[in-house]
Amino acid sequence: MSCRTVILISGSGSNLQAFIDTLHPQQADIVAVISNRADAYGLERAAQAGIPTQVLDHRDFPDRASYDLALAALIDAHTPELVILAGFMRILTAGFVARYHGRLLNIHPSLLPKYTGLHTHRRALEAGDQEHGATVHFVTEELDGGPAIMQSHVPILADDTPESLAERVRATEHRLYPLAAMLYISGRLRLMDGHACLDGNAIAPCGLRLDQFETDMRGHRND
After folding, report:
1. Could you list the active site residues?
2. Which CATH superfamily is domain 3-222 in?
3. pTM score, two decimals?
4. What share of the chain is helix, strand, coil (3-state, %, to 5)?
5. Shortest CA distance to 132 belongs to which of 105, 158, 168?
6. What percent of the chain has pLDDT over 70?
7. What's residue 66's pLDDT?
8. In 3-state terms, what secondary structure has residue 162?
9. How far apart are the first and last CA of the chain?
10. What's the pLDDT tens digit per position in 108-141?
């Protein structure tokens, strides 16, 4: 049975498109796409795929808590089993996070725990890092601090700019995020006692490596 999924966005929705192309509707039945911005291009992507959209503008609310209460009411009306943050540029309140404990996923453009917050690509270049990437994690009250599920890695090239690095990382995100979500949908991935667990076993603190996991999957298919 397809997993009822709500996706939250704020911008272009490229990761949303990856979900639409990869998982919808056979695995992830995306029952709604909700944005805090009416001009988010991701709303058009959803509409083109026949997915219902809603806009809840945070500027219409006096504070973060009241916005999150209204957002939760919108989400709950769709009775989702999974909530995906796909470029949703809002810091969520503790009450909101607790409401969806264990079924709220996010992707962050760095190899967490490095570079929480913004400007991750510039910060990786300024630090002289040799590699960079993205992390899918369960959402907890700590900003970008929930247990890591899976990471993609890309080498940092000598002539990289924040823009070129961001583009290469984004390309890996479109493989990474749907795959990590599929592990949840299939029942293999769960948040247990504060740990991301695959098949009941705790995942290492930095998460699974996308390239290694994909290689293992190909090996199993060829067995």
Report:
1. 108
2. Formyl transferase, N-terminal domain (3.40.50.170)
3. 0.96
4. 35, 25, 40
5. 168
6. 99
7. 98
8. helix
9. 26
10. 999 999 999 999 999 999 999 999 999 999 999 9
